[in-house]
Amino acid sequence: MKRRISIVALLGLLxxxxxxxxxxxxxxxxxxxxxxxxxxxxxxTGFQDWSAELRMVLRNSHGEESTRDLRMxxxxxxxxxxxxxxxxxxxxxxxxxxxLTYTHKSGDDDQWLYLPALARVKRISSNNKxxxxxxxxxxxxxxxxxxxxxxxxxxxxxxxxxxxxxxxVERYPxxxxxxxxxxxxxxxxxxxxxxxxxxxxxxxxxxKTLALNGYNxxxxxxxxxxxxxxxxxxxxxxxxxxxxxYKFRNGFKDSDFDQNSLQRAR
Length: 266
Known about the structure:
By secondary structure, the chain is α+β, with helices and mostly antiparallel strands. It is built from two helices and 15 strands. A hairpin with a 5-residue loop joins strand 1 and strand 2. The longest helix has about 40 residues, at about 1-45. The chain is globular, with a radius of gyration of 22 Å.
């Protein structure tokens, strides 16, 4: 009887060790992925506000292009996600169109779109935030600030990208209504800047890839990309955002980001 009990106990111990190994490795991977995201967030905290000009280049599957000129401003909100306002200046058929976004660390983000042709403000439903923004390959949810709390994480590996050592981290949206099931992010190890993101749709198929290039540093701390290029692998379309004239600490207030500001944007 004692021999039988000891063998059973030994088998149980071996099984528990075998089971604990992968779980421990997974926990470590999740902890490291979260730590990388938190460090990137820490380095980009305290900017207060910023503004920039950008050109949107839309390209169809045949390579034909159209362009739009925009302005964007953002306000850092203590204890919550950022507020942002995107305003279209050209061409004339979209002039004055504006998107206001309140990003939240938890719960649904708030977004409103002002359409000057209709002279009305339209609230973007949480169910529609995965839709394309103004015909581009960027979704409405892509214009929300990427708060740490909006994802769970898993560190995958270290891997060079364009000659720079990078962390490769997988992140999963907490919001079940996101248009993405997961994103794979390449972040450089020197400055924790996002260099590439692969987006996977609700069918878990590779949908889009975003490349970020031409980084410049502002106020000796805050890095911003000069270009963002989003390629849709399922349609063959792409959208480039080319950024210029970044300005920080403009003195923006909450009143610069209310619904009335949408109609004043023009």
